[in-house]
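Bumping with the actual sequence this time:
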Amino acid sequence: MSEPVTVPEISWFGALCDDDYEFLGVPEDHLKSSWSHCSDIVQTADRLGYDNVLLPSGYDLGMDTTSFAAAIATHTEQIQLLAAVRMGEMWLPQLARQLATIDQMASGRLTINIISSDIPGAPLESEPRYQRTREWMHVLRTLLNGESVDMAGEFVKLTVDPPRMRTVSGKCPPFYFGGFSPAAKDTAAEHADVFLTWPDTVAGVAGTIEDMAERAKSFDRTLKYGLRAHVIVRETEAQAREAATRLLSKLDAEEGEKIRQKSLDTASAGVARQNELRDAAEDDGFVEENLWTGVGRARSGAGAAIVGDPDQVLAKIRAYQEVGVGAFILSGYTHKAEADLFAQHVLSKIEHGPLFVGSST
């Protein structure tokens, strides 16, 4: 087996969006998002040596991301914080000041996950929504770089100096961004630092990366690439498959559909691709070796998991690395327990580290 082409960033998931279960689709009060539960997950990931942690954004589905990020920044030591921020949701100068403040509180450990989905109560068609996102990303980066803004765009009409509060590096933290429509891909190619893809076959991920590399080249830019996926690792493949089966053992199909429909992203091209993978899978839910689509039966968004014994999971990660993935944002059910299992069985075998230190490029 060839060696990975990069030292990957290995990240975990903060479950701020009420997305933690022992049995998928069966909510339990002690697993709902709360300060005590989510901070426990993040502090566990920090202690176990993960490089970054995704703090997702929802509206109906849990806690406010920026508030949580500010608080957890003072309760963690080395882990970076990938805070999800919805473009259009807040006045831009105030958002820049908040993010710079959080970066200061985290001693320079902030990274930013750009979200382009609808704002609650204010849906927008895809093309104008991504135009808004492009304008917001440009202005947000400008302000966080400490530069003045004078813009008369379609969605942003703003003349303002940057806030006095600056990030530790003095530069904008890196933007992680995902999306699968042509407008989303072009937005990422022009303005993102890391393009995130959801679970797909190795060949599918390779095709996405090739496509994005060409799009970025047209803007005279290069991107890094990340994969957002779930993971189920056990000492043997049989035990991992048994854990996957158990996870779905109490799922009601109607309840699973309700959970999927709660997301603001249910009509996106990315979700459509996750549905295609699930439809193409074998009866056991596996669409290719060690890639299981069962999670998508009760979850919008990333709907597949890497499932297997430690060697199989490591081999799958390396296969994705070989086609260009440099960052992995992983999760599992329950999130705290699976973070520990992955750390025991796989993380200790991987040379890994943050994609960025200090600021984006």
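The tokens above came from a reply further down the thread. The longest helix spans residues 126-144.
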